[in-house]
Amino acid sequence: MMSEKAKVMELQENHLLISRQLAEARTQELTQRRELDNYSDEIQALKKKHAAEVDEYEADGRKKDRDIRELREDLRVAQDDLSRERETVTSLRATISHQSNAQLTLGTQKNVLQAQCDAIQASLDAATETIAHLQLDLEGSRKRVAELEQDAREAEGVRRKLHNMVQELKGNIRVFCRVRPTEIAANMVFPDRRDHKEIVLSSSSESATGQERKELWNFNFDRVFEPESTQAEVFEEVSMLAQSCVDGYNVCIFAYGQTGSGKSFTMEGGSTESTAGMIPRAVEKVFEAAQELESKGWQYKMEGQFLEIYNETINDLLGKAEFDKKKHDIKHDKSGTRVTDIVTIPLHSPTQVRSLLAIAQSRRTVAATLMNERSSRSHSVFTLRIQGSNSHTGETCDGSLNLVDLAGSERLKESGAADNKDRLRETQNINRSLSALGDVIAALGEKGEKGDKHIPYRNSKLTYLLQNSLSGNSKTLMILNVSPLAAHLNESLCSLRFATKVNNTTIGTAKKQTRTAS
Length: 518
Ligand SMILES: Nc1ncnc2c1ncn2[C@@H]1O[C@H](COP(=O)(O)OP(=O)(O)OP(=O)(O)O)[C@@H](O)[C@H]1O
Hints:
By secondary structure, the protein is of the alpha/beta class. It has eleven helices and 15 strands. It has three domains: 1-82; 98-170, no CATH class; 172-516, 3-Layer(aba) Sandwich (Kinesin). The chain is rod-shaped and about 245 Å long.
């Protein structure tokens, strides 16, 4: 048996061993704890890293989701685009197919057109050839036209000369006698059935011994128009004078006769074509002649005025007021005769002249109502002035056409004016101016023979106004209007005697108012 000491000793040794083991265990534990701490730090670090990686991964995942969404959206848009493009492609294919059909058609058309084009080209070649020929012909024709135009101008000059010679041979003062129609048989006969130049008036009375006494009066004129003569027949003879006026002469046409003998009918006429009088017909003829001469290089300007002379006072029938109150004077100067303050209207057509005549007619009607049948108691003067110039020859010409409806020529006793002071004055004025007209014409005739005779133009307004149109360079026609009524026999005889005096007058050779440009 072991002693207590040994046991204690053993126990101590055990204790020492255990303590050593414990200390080792503690050291080990410490080491392990240190290692554990290290591992724990490592774990923390790994955890942190892991968390960071998880965050990063999640963010990355979210970004990827977004990208995916965007890519999906892009895909959808791309698909839409694609389907649209497909549609476009389909439509383009349809268009292409349509276009190719059209191209085919166009191709066919092109071929047709090409064929036509070839045909046209062939015609064009032929036409060019023809044109070349025609141009040659044209050149020749132009030369020919120029020659013909020259011939025409020369012929126009000859025509003017011949026309004037004919007028001069007929006499620069001519008298026509026109008998107006009536239902009552008249004591007038027209024996010259061929030339219509003669009129014979007759009257029978009882002598103191109871025997029948027959008296005959025979008159000859350039032309006698019987009652059934038409306005056109009278104008046939007058129209030549209208032509003369266009050729540059002064022309005066008078209607003379007692009241109611047909003066106004002859000069102005009725409203229809067939009854139109000398004024509208002459104006129409002047326009016609002027137009015909245009082809020969003539250009004309025309103007008209219309006035009446009543009691030796001039009234403007185309004035603005219905009743003219202005005072008008007659002036003669180098450019011709002018009436102060008178309305002169540029004339462009015969229809315009007709409306002017209507205005003048209405003015005369107003005056007639105011002053007792004034139209028969006044002289009316329509004047058409015509100025021409020829661009080829440089010639110019001035002509005038005066158409005068004279006041009634009845004598004082016949006019019933003796008891009425105003009528007496009127009649005296008319008689004075008509005899002044006769005197001027007679003096012009005498001047023709002697050369230096004074012409009493100033004795009446009418002769003074018409001075230039009555003198040597003019052509005058008097149309004597006669009433066939037996009751008017004495007046008719007076008129016929007056007209015979005029008819026996010859005015000197008419001078054409033509100037040649220097
Ligand atoms: N040749 C004719 N044919 C038909 N009727 C005519 C003819 N001559 C005159 N007359 C008619 O006779 C009437 C008188 O004629 P007009 O008025 O022309 O005479 P006048 O001489 O001008 O008279 P006044 O001096 O009063 O003006 C008118 O009604 C007119 O129509």
